[in-house]
Design brief:
The complex is a heterodimer of chains A (134) and B (913). Chain A is an alpha/beta fold and 134 residues long. In chain A, 43% of the residues lie in helices and 17% in strands. In chain B, helix 1 packs parallel to helix 7 and helix 10 runs parallel beside helix 11. Chain B is of the alpha/beta class and 913 residues long. Classes of the chains: A alpha/beta (134), B alpha/beta (913).
């Protein structure tokens, strides 16, 4: 049987997107094809509904990648996103879906390599959990 | 801006990459430019190249050429030679000949960018060039690698068309050769050129054996050492040697190379073909013209420049950039081109040929048209099948109403197509599509579309093999994103005519001075109590000129400049905004203030790292090189009277934890050694090194040092020199394994200077504040748009000096002025057009609950009692969208990142995964 490849949606702030653009230059750090990026100006823009929607559409995992807590250009965007992710984890638990399927990550400006690492780490984690049992 | 200056046009002589860039930048800053080119086409040397480190060359030049041809402020004169230049600064008369026709033009300033020629090796019979057909020059070899070249990108050797299995490169052909090669200097570019050709040969077929025969491997530029290490990993072989002769092997077409290895033993090896890495020469015609009009030409036959005026000739008002003033690589040529723009702006106000391009007003129907134009551009290296795949994928995407293929001129081609169709949005697909975003946005503006209604699709990784599924998927996602775009309001924001320079060292002060001279007020922020940075302990430039006298004059002129506000003991806390309108908060002893500015130049410096090897910190005879230089400035006699000295190169540098080359240490050592030997000829000086990287004209002082008796001994990083106090306590003993003698030697030293790596000091912190990226070595990363060496990854933010990469004073000055030149392209505009990534309150849904007022990190929303609703000033909104997410009544919208987009994207993205 083929290995399970989780379908993952990542919400990334413009800071992360810039990091992704620089890695697109280097062939060795390519974003895995199973991770789909939705770019937002700041992770503070993301609402609970936006985080749940991908699960409804068949995603196996969702994550938010934003700035470091102390270096968000918009001061508090990533901490707001972290609160929403925590809330979505509770919702997932209530409907018997593993809360680990959603996570939040902090990426510094210029850490293109870390950005692809996160994508791979999330893929590994969700692969371990397996597909969502409907 | 500023006081009254003469106005005038500018003449640029030579339309290679340096001349083209100068013309484009000047035209952007408002000047009418005459661009004169002797040949029948723009582009110079670059069309002959397959790749320009680290990218392919194919699409880097064509958009620039097209932009020159279409710009109403650039008058392109092909097949034209300059006969004479008369007059003086502000009012030159230039006599030209186009074909048979003679004419005279006027210009306030002249820029010499006449470029290079390559050395012709036919006279050096021992290289068999011309007699053995499988001995080719590096330029000929590169042409054969071009996908559009005579062999269609297939490597073939000239004699029989056989694919070569073993290729050798021979370095320093016509460089570093005072016998028959006729040039003592190093041509700077050939080491990277050979590495690039070898790596690309391996990319075609990894089994091809590639061997480079070299004297010193000079990869001293930003990112170059990393390229060398990658090449070695890919199996490119390096042989340190002196080549004696190259002879054809009868009947086989093979080539026999006879060379002396490092120990001096003669060796022989047979190759299928040999590539001669030919050196650079300045354009002979240009030098002839320079002599005729009385411009100083240096001993190496280049247009002479001084390190403190790196792009000025001996004639006021005539500037120089690119290969005609020294063997420079492309990045340095572009830096000089931008510096020349700043020099012109310092004394001449722009006189345009035509008013600035008028952007058509956006008609409502084009704004709202949901139709999508899919425009694609293919590289010559791409599989021809990709074009067909794009077309058929487009046919399956109903949102795509029009498709076109672009060749070369992206902006012109898009304008033409948009004039014929009704599409309101564009999806642009090409290799490294991001690089062309300026062209795409300009085309949308010129065609009366909203300039932000486009998406890019990168075809880069699809290179050789067409992968239909990946290609279709990428196009589908790109088109879907374009479909979900909501047209943002386009706003014209006035440009704040003010610049911020961070860092008060040589680079920062030079940037500030150049901006001020062009009439722009500057705030210069320095962390320390005094200006000067590392410049304070630089004794001399590599040319031997007094750096302290220059620095004192520079500090004085900056401090006395009414246009420059110097804030010492001041740090940067926060920055927001965009090119044209930034707000930066700075702090001095607990007091903060806000500075509004259009551009930022980051010149925050670097430091030589401390080490815990070679007895550093334990023995007071061991110095870091910055300490030795300080001593040479403050108490030179103490150093000059020493009986012996050892300089150790690459200390804690070019090693695993710090892989980059610090560029100027070899030249520093050689300059210092030459000067010490001149003062005290009896001093014994040893230089212990891994590669001598006295690139370019710096090679001349390396030669001088050896002639003066300085001894150079090479070591391997696996077998580092050892250092111990002398048995009699009088000094130090350095023991190093000499590869030529093939045994260890012991060197007495009254002092030892450690040339340690230069690393950026404040980059990590400032990168966060100014939202720019760092490269793998911690220096500011260059713009992903490429060929913009002083642009960071953020618009309106530029870099100069050690924070960008280690470099000497002269190069730092050129870079600082280049950053100022780029900044002026923004500062000379009256307004910037920005996409409205802003939040908007719908008054009918607003319950006046004040959630947005409390949420906004920038305190922008307030309750407008006349409207009875919250109001968000679009000029102040920073566009984070937090209030949109928080608003309990969903009364705030953000067209550039709507709920519709965020809820529909997941389904569309996951389709087919």
């Amino acid at each position: 049987m083929d290995e399970f490849t989780p379908r993952i949606v990542a919400f990334c702030c413009s800071n992360c997107a810039a990091a992704a653009a620089t890695i697109a230059d280097g062939l060795q750090h390519v974003l895995p094809e199973n991770v789909k990026i939705i770019q937002v100006p700041c992770t503070g823009r993301i609402e609970v509904l936006h985080l749940l929607k991908p699960f409804e559409e068949g995603a196996d995992g969702v994550y938010v990648a934003g700035c470091q807590e102390d270096s968000c250009r918009y001061t508090s965007g990533i901490s707001k996103a972290a609160r929403r992710v925590a809330h979505v984890q509770k919702i997932l638990e209530e409907i018997a879906i593993e809360p680990e399927r959603i996570a939040v990550f902090n990426v510094s400006a210029g850490m293109g390599h870390a950005f692809t690492e996160i994508a791979r780490e999330m893929t590994r984690k969700v692969r371990e959990i397996g597909p969502i049992q409907a | 801006m500023g006081q009254k200056k003469p106005t005038g046009f500018v003449m640029v002589i030579g339309a290679g990459i340096a001349g083209i860039q100068t013309a484009l930048s000047l035209a952007d800053a408002g000047y009418g430019v005459h661009l004169v080119e002797r040949s029948a086409a723009l582009g110079g040397m670059i069309p002959d190249l397959h790749r320009i480190y680290p990218l392919c060359a194919c699409c880097k030049l064509d958009p620039r050429i097209a932009a020159c041809e279409q710009n109403p402020n650039i008058n392109v004169l092909l097949d034209t030679s300059v006969d004479d230049i008369s007059g003086k600064i502000g009012n030159f008369r230039i006599a030209l000949t186009t074909g048979e026709e003679k004419k005279e033009l006027q210009a306030g300033a002249v820029i010499f960018a006449a470029g290079i020629e390559t050395f012709q090796p036919a006279n050096l019979d021992y290289y068999a060039y011309g007699s053995a057909s499988n001995v080719v020059t590096s330029v000929e070899f590169e042409q054969s690698q071009k996908p559009l070249g005579p062999n269609g990108g297939m490597l073939k050797r000239p004699s029989d068309g056989k694919t070569p299995a073993k290729i050798a490169w021979l370095q320093c052909v016509g460089s570093r050769d005072i016998n028959r090669g006729d040039a003592s200097y190093c041509s700077t570019v050939c080491c990277m050129h050979a590495l690039k050709e070898a790596v690309n040969a391996k990319a075609v077929n990894a089994d091809i054996e590639t061997t480079i025969f070299f004297i010193d491997m000079r990869t001293h530029g930003k990112g170059y050492e990393n390229y060398l290490n990658t090449a070695l990993e890919k199996g490119v072989q390096l042989v340190r040697s002196k080549v004696h002769t190259i002879n054809p092997v009868p009947e086989t077409g093979d080539v026999l190379m006879s060379y002396a290895d490092e120990q001096g033993h003669m060796q022989e090896a047979v190759f299928d073909m040999v590539v001669l890495s030919v050196g650079l020469r300045p354009s002979a015609q240009a030098i002839e013209l320079a002599r005729k009009i009385g411009i100083r030409v240096d001993a190496d036959n280049y247009v002479g420049t001084e390190p403190f005026q790196p792009v000025s000739t001996s004639t006021a008002g005539i500037f120089v950039c690119g290969g005609v003033c020294g063997p420079h690589d492309i990045a340095h040529s572009l830096t000089q081109a931008n510096a020349a723009v700043a020099q012109v702006a310092a004394f001449l106000d722009p006189q345009p040929f035509a008013p600035a391009l008028n952007y058509a007003a956006v008609p409502a129907e084009a704004q709202t048209s949901p139709g999508i134009l899919l425009a694609y551009q293919l590289c010559p290296g791409m599989h021809p099948e990709i074009g067909r795949l794009v077309e058929s994928a487009a046919a399956d995407l109903p949102a795509v109403t029009d498709v076109c293929r672009l060749d070369g001129d992206i902006r012109g081609g898009l304008c033409e197509k948009l004039a014929q169709c009704a599409a309101g949005r564009v999806v642009f697909a090409s290799c490294t599509a991001l690089m062309h975003k300026d062209s795409v946005e300009a085309a949308l503006r010129l065609s009366g579309r909203n300039p932000f209604m486009y998406e890019t699709v990168d075809l880069k990784l699809l290179g050789g093999e067409p992968a239909p599924a990946t290609l279709t998927e990428r196009l589908r996602v790109g088109v879907m994103r374009a479909e979900l775009l909501s047209p943002p309001a386009v706003r014209e924001i006035p440009v704040v005519k003010h610049a911020l320079v961070v860092g008060g060292g040589v680079a920062g002060m030079e940037s500030a001075r150049a901006l001020s001279a062009a009439g722009c007020p500057v705030t210069l922020v320095e962390k320390e109590k005094v200006l000067g940075g590392h410049g304070r302990h630089v004794r001399a430039t590599w040319q031997g000129l007094d750096a302290q006298a220059y620095l004192q004059e520079l500090i004085r002129s900056v401090e006395q400049d009414d246009n420059i506000t110097v804030l010492t003991e001041t740090g940067v806390k926060h920055n927001r905004g965009y090119a044209g309108n930034f707000v930066t908060t700075v702090e001095n002893n607990g007091r903060t203030q806000e500075i509004r500015h259009a551009v930022t130049i980051l010149a925050c410096g670097g430091d030589d790292r401390s080490v815990d090897e070679y007895l550093y910190g334990q023995n007071d005879r061991v110095y870091l090189w910055s300490e030795l230089e300080s001593k040479l400035v403050s108490d030179p006699a103490a150093v000059e009277n020493a009986g012996s000295a050892v300089f150790i190169q690459c200390v804690g540098s070019r090693e695993k934890d710090c892989p980059h080359c610090s560029n100027l240490c070899c030249s520093f050592t050689v300059r210092t050694a030459v000067d010490l030997k001149t003062k005290n000829p009896d001093m014994k000086i040893f230089v212990v090194y891994r590669e001598m990287r006295t690139f370019g004209l710096r090679e001349n002082i390396y030669l001088e040092a050896r002639q003066k008796g300085v001894v150079f001994i090479r070591y391997e990083v696996e077998n580092k020199p050892r250092i111990a106090p002398a048995a009699d306590g009088s000094g130090l003993v350095v023991t190093v394994f000499d590869p030529i003698l093939d045994r260890p030697v012991s060197l007495d030293a009254d002092f030892v200077s450690l040339q340690t790596a230069i690393r950026p000091t404040h980059n990590a912190e400032l990168a966060e504040i100014f939202h720019v990226d760092l490269d793998a070595d911690g220096f500011f990363a260059p713009s992903p748009e490429k060929l913009k060496p002083v642009d960071t990854t953020a618009g309106g933010v530029f870099m100069a000096g050690l924070a960008a990469y280690p470099k000497d004073t002269g190069d730092a000055i050129a870079e600082a002025r280049a950053a100022a030149g780029r900044a002026l392209e923004i500062l000379k505009q009256d307004t910037v057009q920005i996409g409205g990534q802003v939040a908007e309150v719908m008054p009918e849904k607003c319950a006046v609950c004040c959630t947005c007022v409390r949420t906004c990190p920038f305190y922008v929303p307030f309750i407008d009692h006349d409207r009875g609703a919250a109001y968000i000033d679009p000029a102040l909104c920073q566009g984070c969208g937090m209030c949109v997410a928080e608003c309990p009544g969903k009364a705030i919208v953000m067209p550039s990142c709507s709920d519709r987009m965020l809820t529909q994207m997941p389904a569309a993205l996951l389709e087919g995964v």
